[in-house]
C-alpha cells in the first residue's frame, strides 16, 4: 500500500469511528432526555387533572358525610330526614338526588320518589358496598333509566354509636358528564390524549370506546398484557405497541375510587426532536468526514511527494546517475 493511502486509512478510519460513536451517543442521550421529560410532563398533567376529578368526587362525598353525621348526632325523625334529603337534592348540583336506606327496610328519597313494594334497597350494590363500612363506596357506572346518561352511585355507611338505632346507607347518584368532559379536555403533545377506566378495565371516558368496551379486548387485545400496569394502585410509566404504533402511557389512580386516569402519546412524537438531532448528526458527520479526508489528503501530499522524490534520487544515485537534482521530476 502506498504511503499516501496508508496515511488516509490510519487517520481517516479512526476519525470516522469517533464521529460515528459521537453520533450514536448523542442520539441515545437525547432519546433518554426526551423520554424522561415526557414522563415528567405526563406525570404533572395526570396529577393536575386527576386531582380535579378527585376534588369533584370528594365534594359529593362531603355532602354524604354531613347527612350521615346529622343522622348519627340528631337522630332525625322521618319527616325531618326527608326534608334534609330534599334540601340537599335541590341545592347540590350535578346529582340526581340524595337518599337513605336503613337496615330496618325503610327507604327515603329526596326526589320524592316512592318505590313500590317489590323494591328492596338492601339487595342493591350501593347498599351492600357501604353498609357497616367507614369508607365511601362508588358503584360501577351505569345508564340512568330516566335520561339515559351515565351515572355512578356514591354511598356511605351510617353507623350510629347507639347500637339500638338502625344502621343504614346514605347515597347519591352523580352524572359522569363533568368527569368525562374533564378527561376529554386533556391534551398530551400534538396528538396524545387521556382516558378513564374503572377497576375492571371498562372505559368510563374515551375518544373512541364506550363503557361496553374493555381495555383487555380493544385493539385486538394489544393492551391485555399490560392490564396489571394499568390497574396498579401506584402511578406507572411504560410503553406499549398498539395498532403498529409504539406509545408511551402514564397511569394515575384516582383516590377513593378504583378508577385510573391514563395518558397516552405516540413515542415517535415524543422523540421527534431526537430523530431530528440524529439526522443532523449524521449530516454533520458526513461533512466533517469529507473535510477531514480533504485535509488528510493535502497533508499527505505535502509529506509524501518530497519523500517520493527523495526516494527516486536515492535510487538514481544508487545506479550511479549523478545528474539528478532537487528539480528532477
TrEMBL record:
This is histidine kinase. PANTHER family: METHYL-ACCEPTING CHEMOTAXIS PROTEIN (PTHR45528:SF10), SENSOR HISTIDINE KINASE CPXA (PTHR45528). InterPro entries: dCache_1, HssS/ArlS-like, Sensor-like_sf. It comes from Peptoanaerobacter stomatis. It holds the Pfam family dCache_1. Keywords: Cell membrane, Kinase, Membrane, Phosphoprotein, Transferase, Transmembrane, Transmembrane helix. Residues 34-262 form the Cache domain. It is an enzyme of class 2 (transferase).
Amino acid at each position: 500500500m502506498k504511503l499516501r493511502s496508508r496515511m488516509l486509512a490510519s487517520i481517516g478510519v479512526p476519525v470516522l469511528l469517533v464521529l460515528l460513536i459521537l453520533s450514536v451517543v448523542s442520539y441515545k442521550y437525547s432519546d433518554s432526555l426526551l423520554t424522561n421529560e415526557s414522563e415528567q410532563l405526563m406525570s404533572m398533567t395526570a396529577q393536575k387533572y386527576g386531582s380535579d376529578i378527585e376534588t369533584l368526587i370528594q365534594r359529593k362525598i362531603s355532602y354524604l358525610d354531613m347527612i350521615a353525621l346529622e343522622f348519627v348526632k340528631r337522630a332525625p325523625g322521618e319527616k325531618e330526614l326527608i326534608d334534609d334529603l330534599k334540601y340537599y337534592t335541590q341545592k347540590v348540583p350535578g346529582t340526581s338526588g340524595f337518599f337513605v336506606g336503613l337496615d330496618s327496610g325503610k327507604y327515603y328519597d329526596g326526589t320524592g320518589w316512592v318505590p313500590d313494594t317489590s323494591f328492596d334497597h338492601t339487595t342493591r350494590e350501593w347498599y351492600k358496598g357501604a353498609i357497616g363500612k367507614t369508607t365511601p363506596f362508588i358503584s360501577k357506572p351505569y345508564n340512568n333509566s330516566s335520561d339515559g346518561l351515565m351515572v355512578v352511585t356514591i354511598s356511605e355507611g351510617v353507623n350510629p354509636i347507639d347500637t339500638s338505632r338502625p344502621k343504614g346507607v346514605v347515597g347519591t347518584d352523580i352524572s359522569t358528564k363533568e368527569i368525562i368532559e374533564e378527561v376529554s379536555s386533556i391534551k398530551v403533545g400534538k396528538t396524545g390524549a387521556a382516558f378513564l377506566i374503572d377497576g375492571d378495565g371498562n372505559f368510563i371516558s374515551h375518544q373512541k370506546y364506550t363503557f361496553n368496551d374493555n381495555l383487555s379486548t380493544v385493539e385486538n387485545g394489544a393492551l391485555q398484557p399490560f392490564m396489571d400496569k394499568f390497574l396498579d394502585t401506584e402511578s406507572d410509566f411504560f410503553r406499549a405497541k398498539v395498532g403498529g404504533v409504539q406509545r408511551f402511557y402514564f397511569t394515575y389512580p384516582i383516590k377513593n375510587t378504583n378508577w385510573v386516569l391514563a395518558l397516552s402519546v405516540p413515542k415517535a412524537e415524543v422523540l421527534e426532536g431526537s430523530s431530528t438531532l440524529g439526522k443532523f448528526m449524521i449530516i454533520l458527520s458526513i461533512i466533517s468526514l469529507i473535510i477531514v479526508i480533504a485535509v488528510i489528503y493535502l497533508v499527505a501530499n505535502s509529506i509524501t511527494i518530497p519523500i517520493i522524490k527523495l526516494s527516486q534520487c536515492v535510487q538514481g544515485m544508487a545506479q550511479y546517475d549523478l545528474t539528478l537534482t532537487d528539480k528532477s521530476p
